[in-house]
Amino acid sequence: MNTSFKLKQFNSNKESLSPNLQNQLSSILSKLHSNCYRQIIAASKDKSTIGLALSWENPFHPHADYLKVYLDESAQETNALQKQLLTQLEQNATSSSDRFIYSLMNDQYNIISLLESSGYELIRKTYEPTLAIDDCLIHITEPSHSTVLTYKEALSNSSLKVELFHLLKRNYVNTHQVNPAADLTLSEWESLFLHEQPDLDLSLIGLTNGSISSYITVFSSDQNSVEIAWVGLDEETPISYLELKQLFKKQLELFKSKGVNSIETEIDTTDYYACGLFSFIKLTELESFHTYRKMI
User: Fold this and answer.
1) Is residue 15 one of the residues assigned to a domain?
2) Are residues 61 and 179 in the same domain?
3) Is the domain of 146 the same as that of 120?
4) Structure pTM?
5) pLDDT tens-place string over residues 269-293
6) Is residue 2 very low, low, confident or very high in pLDDT (cuts 50, 70, 90)?
7) Which of 125, 141, 170 is the last residue of a domain?
8) Does 136 share its domain with 117?
9) How far apart, in whole angstroms, are the C-alpha atoms of residue 217 and residue 202?
10) Is 136 a member of any domain?
């Protein structure tokens, strides 16, 4: 083990982060002073912190410890330091966890190599393309769904409300088997979902014989852009995927009438509903966010 690096618990009041590391951590610097992380391990050299290793838990996915290593790119022997920090995190796993989860961009080759040599497997790729409304309308040639309601309308109907949250829960659980979700009641799912503040006027459900057969959830980003997530079907058949695209066509027309120009997407390879809806996109040509798992 390389002795030129010193590993210790991070003290935000005493540690001096190198400029390169500080830049990498810019989006989470404020969280280092909170209780967001279970472990924060610092690697220092010559009185400067050149690496941080973080672990945290997610109550919505309670079986995993989430890990992340940040390293000053100008530091020497980075491979050895990355391995030390990752090993240190693994040695202090939460007793209730049965897996480690590590997510990163697909071009971070050094840490990917370390993960693969340390027993991690790639379990999911996530693509986040931004799509123009007009381009989507070119590719979605199906006619608009003829029987739709907004989420606001559906939630005002007690039976449709139960249907919607049942589908949201069932489909989320089924598409996240690689890192199972917590066992929550339908009421807890409702609270969790509404806490995310979906746009209830732009999110739509499709109805078949009075029951929900498809849904697409929308989150407002700004006046001209929206985010689409939590899409799904009651039944997974080729015909039902056609219906999902018909619902999307209706939604695209609604977006256009509201002055929305673009859509931010999140397409997980484990989410067959999202992959089916956006099948017109050549995902393999895009950069992706990779999630690795190691069972303990």
Assistant:
1) yes
2) no
3) no
4) 0.91
5) 999 999 999 999 999 999 999 999 9
6) very low
7) 125
8) no
9) 8
10) yes
